[in-house]
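Annotated sample (chain length 410).
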Amino acid sequence: MNSINKTLPELLCPAGDLTRLKTAVDFGADAVYIAGEEFGMRTAASNFGESDMREGIKYAHDHGVKVHVACNTLPHNDEICRIPAFLELVQDAGADAVIAADLGTIGMVKKYAPKCELHVSVQSGIVNYETANAFYNLGANRVVTARELSLAEIAEIRAKTPKDLMIECFAHGAMCVSFSARCLLSSYMTGRDANRGDCAQPCRWSYSLVEQNREGQHFDITETDKGTYILNANDLCMAEHLQEMMDAGIGSLKIEGRAKSQYYVAVTANAYRGALDSLKGANGGWQLPAWVSEELNKISHRTYSTGFYYGRPENAQTYSHAGYVRDYAVAATVDGYEDGKIIATLKNKFWRGQELDCLEPMSAPFTVKADELFDGDNNPIENAPHPMMQIKIPYHRPVKVGSMLRMKCD
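Output written by the structure step:
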């Protein structure tokens, strides 16, 4: 199917705090999703108090970007009484949508934040068109389909639901060994409730497996003296398959990662923005720009997979370790440009003569070589040793504020 006449899907990016929201906006998001100090599925993120929420929504709207606020935990009785006031705040702050999963919460969204769109979270486990239609009849403007669906199944949901019901799907980020992200493992093992945003990620721990009741069945498990990481799912990356996602009728591509770093947000937003923009005018022969693939390997990540989009995953898990691939680090962030020099704030030590990789908002990366290096007072220096010190690097053109200078890790 040709994509030439289709509207590009929305690029929906994560924001764990105000800084990351502004980064997502600056690097190409069409929409961002955030959470307040309660009721969001990532308590590890800094999240948004009232003042930050209001400032963040204004910043996004000033740049033509929408804001979706997560209220998608499964709240217990003692939490219910606090939800109405939270929803009223979200609506008053100008949020475009509320993301909810619990049926009771969904009812309260319609009552206390009726001006906001209702988006039904992945936590609701939508795996068929009847369920999607049922949520539509409850007032949903959008559904986030379960992670365990194939593109063919999503296309059928699209074909058998109202056209004004948006289909949102994850395109990138961490995967979870559970039913549509609902899991009791953390609660059992640590007392931290994954369904209320406090998962301890025991699926990433090392285990030893003993099976006595499945005679004749062979389980191929790589095991060391430390056990095996049998539940350790690989990360999702659908960057090379955006045309197929678009052709399946997916209207919003979601990047996982509200607990991830500002750098992760910048790279993923910029890369997927570049990938989507390259789809404009594609006539079926689209290929992912090479720089996008390279970018997505410059963030901390597990081995990439395509999840369940093409059926049962062939490379679903990494059994030998739970670690991330980390090949690049941020050397400095750009604050301005003056007298032919990039002005930046140091994040990690580097040396004069070192070749840096520059991530600039809304563009492919390029090289900046620090043949000369100066401190904030224009004194020549051999290296930049102190985090947060001001540095200056001669360069032939201005570089956008907020750009990141990166270096390859040893």
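Annotation: The first helix runs from residue 18 to 26.
Annotation: The longest strand covers residues 328-338.
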